[in-house]
Amino acid sequence: MKTNILTAAAVSFLTMTAVAQKDEVKNAEDALEDGNYAEAKAQLKIAEPNLSELNDKWKENFYLYKAKAYAEGNPTTEDMKTAAMAYEKAAEMGNEEAAEGLNALRNNLIQSAISDQNNKDFQGAADKLYASYELSKTDTIYLYYAANNLVEAQKYDKAVEYLEMLNELGYDGSGKSYTAVNVQTGERENLGSQQQMDLMIKTKQYKDPEVEDIPSKKGDIAQLIARIYINQEDYEKAITAMDKAKATNPDDMGLLQAEANMYYQMGETDKAREILEEVAENDPSDPATFNNIGLMYAEIEDTEKAIEFYNKALEINPEYNEARVNLIAAKLSKERVIIEEMNNLGMSKADNARYDELDAERKEIYKSVIPDLEKAMEIDPDNEDIVRTAMNIYTNLGNQEKADELKAKL
Fold first, then answer.
1. Residues 143-160 pLDDT 10s
2. What CATH number is associated with residue 389?
3. Angstrom distance (rounded) from CA 162 to CA 143
4. pLDDT digits over 260-269, tens only?
5. Residue 25 falls within a domain, yes or no?
6. What CA–CA distance (Å, rounded) separates 226 from 160?
7. Domain tally for the chain?
């Protein structure tokens, strides 16, 4: 009989405990309705140690209320993580509200990260982006963005850790973007998929749909890793990281571009130029490659070679003003030796004659860049440096009317 009495007492105790747990969960619900998130958290903490004694429906409610308590108010990144895990458990138990809440929480995390990034709180943005990745391990793009923010925050060790994780995951990042203009705001927005974009266009809420290719980010990742090691003056690791990336993606032109940039940062300009010339040979469609080769020839004062490559860039894209500005600078650099000789001449008849010859040569250089300057101003009319250079050229050529017109524009 004693055994039966003890068993009955134990059962009674367990029943009382379960009732108490339900009261605390219900109290948390009431606190949430009143907007008292601290009280809701307190009630849920009391209930949590004996959660196993509740039935599935009450457990589902517990996780839903916990998620809401931590997601609302002014949550920290850790609060959001706690809320997300609670939403996941409630959703796994079939709670539709929790599934919707989890999606909303993910969006809030991303928006909050964007806000942090815009405010230059790169560490805060990285924490939230990594939390977003943890919520959905298939969304590796957030791990990539987290690493980028860590680089901006100069948290290089952690950034490398994330970047190496991406390499281990085989992250590529290429794909397509589906965007359209929001009729109400006038802003172009990413709509995620072809299906979603088509649907939103049919609603007339969006217009001007566009599908664009997103290039692979493997080159960017390799470049980031190398940049970090170069910043730390660990050149051996930088080269090893780049070689490793190239071994797995030998045909990736982005990686070759990154390797060239790495050697350039290390001060090995000749090596960088050789790699870029290999890139240009394999992919002659990118004007930026030819422009960069031109810049490297300009650094070693091989002006003719520099001009050759700037012109190649402009043949591919006549609107590529960066190459045109560099071309103008390269052509004008030829006047330096002319001016030096002019300044060193004496006052003899022969010196005066030589001065006139050199002045004529200098003016021919000025005349040669006028078409380039006019085209550059046509493409970028608000670029003050281009307008000022053109104004000075016209002044030196004696075309004061044109010089005054540009002066007024400035």
1. 999 999 999 999 999 999
2. 1.25.40
3. 7
4. 888 888 889 9
5. yes
6. 9
7. 4
